[in-house]
Design brief:
- By secondary structure, the protein is of the alpha+beta class.
- The chain has two domains: 217 residues, L,D-transpeptidase catalytic domain-like (Beta Barrel), CATH 2.40.440; 200 residues, Jelly Rolls, CATH 2.60.120.260.
- Strands 3-2-1-8-4-5-6-7 form an eight-stranded mixed β-sheet.
- The longest helix is centred in the N-terminal third of the chain and has 20 residues.
């Protein structure tokens, strides 16, 4: 073997060893940079009073219903996005990254501004930001060759294939001297990008690898994320918030604030209706029915269903729901009620519709085949408390892999089945009178999962009430 070729082979081998040991890419993350296409001077870092900040945040009350994103950082991103919206080419998503957290935690959040849903992922930081290689980024910079991550607001750029396939360039919007150590206007020249990396895994809760300063993602999800946000979406990377979370009011303070409604806070905004002691029906045309998510995916039918009306959407296999329906209940009396849902043949096609019945402070998950019955079919029997904040919820994320499966939102019927004595409890039970679960009755077609789910949060995405 020629000496030059042998030397190259040894060098290549050592490079692989170094990358595996330190989890740092041995090569630049870009082949070359291109001219910056964004003028950072066109963007404004908002300086607002607490009241002004709250007014903006209230307009985005449907975002992050499950509270995945650190609240103050989410509000920083909301305010910056809203103030600079005219300068942001793509407004369907933004990303929040909390680099104060351990790299083994989810700290990269993709926020869907249409549905409010949030995806959480792992992300690597730069080796220069973590010189002790302990999973914590403590140093940040805007200098070429530092291998440090940069804090601040970014706009996403173009997709390209470099050292890492399907990477995405970034343009920084935060000049040196910005608050909280934000400085990232050199990221394009520094070749700091978003790319996939084998040393990042969403399934690994231990320390992730380190990059050359790039936002490196799990290869399994990187393409999906980049495809949605490239070409002008906002990214916010921070270790501390720019302002305190807005005071949006508290449910029960006798004021129906802009982030509250009759579903989330009937105490302040009034109830949508009352379920009589004997029971009742909440149909898709009633005030206590809420259908949410992208309006284009919600289809109204006036020729089928209970009272010749229903709403349907397509089921998905996504981890989070996009469209949903919720039937809210305000009970005149506590008691034991059977719960049934109306499923109309010809439109109901989901074989694993995943309902959640919220009673008192407990969630019960029930999965049924909507095709099994043309009419009412049971979800089970449940103990409901007196009052509001109780509901049936159905999301479109059924897990079905087949395309174009229709999921029906129609009437829910409640029938009192106990002796009418209130006990104030909230829970579910099977037909044998035992406690701690729920079961079906009648035709037995429904497949029931008796699960106690901690704290299902109501979805308040771009919703429409019918």
């Amino acid at each position: 073997m020629p000496r030059t070729l042998a030397l190259r082979t040894v060098v290549a081998f050592l490079a692989v060893v170094v990358e595996a040991a330190a989890c740092v890419s041995p090569e630049p993350d870009l082949g070359s940079s291109t001219a910056e296409i964004v003028d950072p001077g066109a963007f404004v870092l908002p300086s607002l009073s607490a009241a002004e900040r709250a007014l903006i945040v209230q307009k985005y009350a449907s975002l992050d219903p499950n509270h995945k994103v650190p609240r103050a950082l989410l509000e920083d991103a909301i305010v910056y996005f809203d103030v600079n919206k005219a300068q942001i080419p793509k407004t369907s998503y933004f990303v929040v990254v909390d680099l104060s957290q351990y790299s083994g935690k989810d700290r990269f959040w993709l926020v869907d501004l249409t549905t409010g849903a949030v995806e959480n992922h792992k992300v690597a930081h730069g080796s220069g930001s973590d010189p002790d290689n302990n999973g914590y980024a403590t140093l940040f910079g805007n200098v070429d060759g530092s291998y440090m991550s940069s804090l601040g607001f970014y706009l996403t750029g173009e997709i390209y294939d470099g050292t890492h396939p399907h990477s995405m360039r970034l343009d920084g919007l935060s000049a040196d001297g910005s608050p909280n150590g934000m400085a990232n206007t050199n990221v394009r020249e520094r070749l700091i990008v978003v790319h996939e990396a084998s040393y990042v895994s969403d399934g690994n809760a231990s320390q992730q690898g380190r990059s050359n300063g790039c936002l490196a993602l799990d290869p399994a999800i990187e393409a999906s994320v980049v495809d949605r946000i490239h070409g002008g979406s906002l990214i916010y990377a921070a270790i501390a918030p720019l302002g305190a979370p807005a005071d949006l009011g508290t449910c029960g303070d006798a004021t129906c604030d802009r982030n509250e409604d009759k579903f989330s806070c009937p105490e302040d905004c009034g109830v949508c209706g009352t379920i009589d002691a004997a029971g009742g029906v909440v149909d898709d045309g009633d005030a206590c029915f809420l259908a949410g998510g992208p309006a284009a995916s919600l289809h109204e039918v006036t020729t089928a269903g209970m009272d010749s009306s229903l709403v349907w959407t397509h089921a998905t296999a996504l981890p989070g729901e996009q469209n949903f329906a919720e039937w809210s209940f305000n009970f005149a009396e506590a008691g034991r009620y059977s719960v049934e849902v109306f499923t109309a043949a010809g439109f109901a096609q989901s074989r694993q519709a995943r309902y959640v019945v919220h009673t008192g402070a407990t969630d019960h998950a029930i999965e049924i085949d909507q095709t099994a019955v043309d009419g009412y079919q049971p979800l089970g029997e449940f103990e409901f408390a007196r009052g509001a904040h109780q509901f049936v919820h159905l999301g479109d994320n059924t897990g079905e892999q087949v395309a174009n499966v229709q999921l029906v939102f129609d009437a829910v019927r409640l029938t009192r089945i106990d002796d009418g004595k209130e006990d104030g409890a909230g829970g579910g039970s099977g037909n044998d009178g035992g406690s701690g679960g729920c079961s079906t009755s009648g035709n037995g077609a429904g497949f029931v999962i008796a699960l106690a789910l901690a704290g299902l949060r109501r979805r308040r995405r771009s919703s429409r009430s019918r």
